[in-house]
Amino acid sequence: MASDQQKVLVPPKRVNTDYPLIDSDPHITRVIRYARPSDYAVAGGMAAVSPIAFWVMERVSPSHVGKGGFAPVMRLATVIGLLGGFHIFYQRSVNRFYGFTENSREVEMDMREMVDKVKKGEPLYGTSKVSEYLQGVAARNSRYSGLFVHILPWFNFVNHNQHGVDTAKYYQQAERELEAERLAREGSS
């Protein structure tokens, strides 16, 4: 019988990619914050395709349903377009976290964010109100879920510390920066 205090950690599988892994289970807010302007542009364009396509089809081959029939179809087409646009937006951003596409900007943003948290003494991936066991369950269920988001929309909403990266690099960088700041203060005195 296992002890209640025993930690259950399942290490994430490491995927071979051309770019560095930033996070194998990024929180949804990080994915949105790290999105590039091009992600917004592509998502907006993709979101507009569905209602525009329905409008063009109505102009080319009218359905003759009148104003009462066309409006609900346009609302549905708009909602479908917005959902599709968000899917494209999320997919483009999360693929950079996984290291599947070029991510040098996001690597720098991640390093800056995490080093600043280390300097402030904050937890790297936020605090959670759920138990460590449930954090592990959440991590195992949503790790690399962005790969299957087109079939099952599953996002990480739980703060936990199981992200598949060695966090020592953040602490080492923070130590170097603090040392450089200390030397600069001593040199200016």
Automatic annotation (TrEMBL):
Q: What is its EC number?
A: 1.6.5.3
Query: In this protein, which residues make up the domain named NADH-ubiquinone oxidoreductase 21kDa subunit C-terminal fungi?
Result: 111-182
Which Pfam families does UniProt cross-reference here? NADH-u_ox-rdase, NADH_u_ox_C
Transmembrane stretches, start-end? 40-57, 69-90
Superkingdom to which the source organism belongs: Eukaryota
Q: Which GO terms describe its molecular function?
A: oxidoreductase activity
- NADH-ubiquinone oxidoreductase 21kDa subunit N-terminal domain: residues covered: 16-102
Q: Which UniProt keywords apply?
A: Membrane, Oxidoreductase, Transmembrane, Transmembrane helix, Ubiquinone
Name of the protein? NADH:ubiquinone reductase (H(+)-translocating)
Q: From which source organism is this entry?
A: Rasamsonia emersonii (strain ATCC 16479 / CBS 393.64 / IMI 116815)
Q: What is the lineage of its organism?
A: Eukaryota, Fungi, Dikarya, Ascomycota, Pezizomycotina
